[in-house]
Amino acid sequence: MSHWVHFSRLKAGLSPHVERLVKELAGRLPSGLDYSYASLDAVSAYVEAIGVDTAMVDLYDHLVAYVGEIIRRRTQGEWKLRHDGADVYPYIRAPRHAIIMPINVVWGEFCSIEPVAFRTAAANEVRSARARFM
Q: N or C: which end of the chain has fewer CB within 10 A?
């Protein structure tokens, strides 16, 4: 999680700012955001257009907040904080799921050599969390 510590401006304080971060992200996209998995395609295209390096620096918290909110709403979960040694980071806790990590979704897409695909990555993270719970 060293990437979270390095790139996040809000770190453990992200969850109280989710609504603001999502509004700011929505203001950058011509179509806005509707909290659907499909809206992640527009977000992915936007990140591709501005470049992953720019998004990593300028939008990391925004992207984690939006991906996390979509996941939270779809799974009826809630934002929580995980304490892992000295590091503290937000995650989604949902019924019938292991810990769901929107941070992993965003970071994984930042590090991929493939085009950014937040929709697929978010769906895979939720499926994986459900499978780990079983």
A: C
DSSP state of 83: E
What is the residue-wise DSSP string for 2-17?
HHHHHH-SSGGG-GGG
Distance of CA 122 to the CA centre of its chain: 8
- Give the residue among 106, 101, 107, 108 at the shortest CA–CA distance from 132: 101
Size (the chain), residues: 134
Q: Which residues of 10-49 are buried (b: 16+ CB within 10 A; e: fewer)?
A: beeebbeebeebbeebbeeeeeebeeeeebbebbbebbee
Four-CA torsion 17, 20, 26, 28, nearest 10 degrees: -100
Q: Mind listing the pLDDT tens digit for each residue in 82-134? A: 988 878 899 999 999 999 999 999 999 999 999 999 999 999 999 999 998 87
